[in-house]
Amino acid sequence: MFDLRPASPADRAALYRICLQTADSGADGTHLYRDPLLVGHIYAGPYLMFAPEHTFVLEDGEGVCGYVLGVADTPAFEARLEREWWPALRAQYPDPVNVPPHERTPDERLTHLIHHPSLHDPALLADYPAHLHIDLLPRAQGRGQGRRLLERLLLSLREAGAPGVQLGVGGRNTRAQAFYRHLGFSELRRTPGGSLVLGLKL
C-alpha cells in the first residue's frame, strides 16, 4: 500500500502541506497560520532544495502522506541557508522584532525564526552533526511506516559518514517521544521552552 521513494522537486507542495498538517505538535496546524507556506519555508523547503539526497517521501493511493528529511552536516547546512535561503524570505517577510514576543501571532513567531534562525547547540554537534525531521499524516501512522522512513534516512546519513544524528521534539508530543526512544534515541538536552533534543549514534 505504501511506496517509499526519494523526494523530487515535484513533491514540494506535498511536503509543505504535510508540514502544515502536522505543525501543532503532530496534529493539524492549518488553523494556526494565516500564511500556509510559512511552516514549510522553515522545516521542509530548504531540505528539498539543498539536501535532496537525504529527503524521502511516503506515498499511497491518495498521494504523498509522509516524509523524512535531514542533513549529514548541520553547521554547513545552516551556513548555506544563511547565504542562499533566508535572504529571499527576509525580503518577503518583515521582521516582527518590534512586536513583544508574548504578543506575536503564530505567523510572526515563524517570521521571527526566518530573521533569527534557531541554530543547533554547538556542544552537541561534534557527536551528533546530523539532524532530521519526520512527519506522517494520520492515515500513514501506526503501520510501521515511520520506522521504515526513519531507517531509510539513517542509512543515508551513515553512508554520508555522519557519526550521530539529533532531532527536536515538542514537550507535549509524548507519542513522538515514545516512538523515538523505542528506536534507540536518548535525551541529550531540554530547551528552556520544554522541548527535547534526542540523539542517536550511527
Short description:
The protein is an alpha+beta fold and 202 residues long. The protein has 9 helices and 7 strands, in the order βαααββααααβαβαββ. It is globular.
What does this structure look like?
With 202 residues, the protein is α+β, with helices and mostly antiparallel strands. It has one domain (3-201): Gcn5-related N-acetyltransferase (GNAT) (Aminopeptidase), CATH 3.40.630.30. It contains nine helices and seven strands, in the order βαααββααααβαβαββ. The chain has helices at residues 12-21, 38-43, 45-50, 74-84, 86-92, 106-115, 122-125, 145-159, 174-182; strands at 3-6, 55-60, 63-71, 130-136, 164-169, 186-190, 196-201. Strands 1-2-3-4-5-7-6 form a seven-stranded mixed β-sheet, sandwiched between helices. Strand 2 and strand 3 (63-71) form a beta hairpin. It is globular, with a radius of gyration of 16 Å. The two termini are 29 Å apart.
Topology record:
Layout (H helix, E strand, L loop, with lengths): L2 E4 L5 H10 L16 H6 L1 H6 L4 E6 L2 E9 L2 H11 L1 H7 L13 H10 L6 H4 L4 E7 L8 H15 L4 E6 L4 H9 L3 E5 L5 E6 L1
Parallel strand pairs: 4-5
Antiparallel strand pairs: 1-2, 2-3, 3-4, 5-7, 6-7
Contiguous uncertain segments of 5+ residues:
none
Please report the number of helical segments.
Answer: 9
**CATH class category label:** Alpha Beta
Give the strand order of the largest sheet, numbering strands 1, 2, ... along the chain.
Answer: 1-2-3-4-5-7-6
Q: How many structural domains? A: 1
* Major sheet characteristics: 7 strands, mixed
Shape: globular
What would you call the quaternary organization? single chain
* First-to-last CA distance: 29 Å
* CATH third-tier fold name: Aminopeptidase
Share of residues in helices: 25-40%
Q: What is the H-and-E element order? A: EHHHEEHHHHEHEHEE
Q: In the CATH classification, which architecture applies?
A: 3-Layer(aba) Sandwich
Indicate the radius of gyration in whole angstroms.
16 Å
Q: Quick one: CATH superfamily? A: Gcn5-related N-acetyltransferase (GNAT)
Share of residues in strands: 15-25%
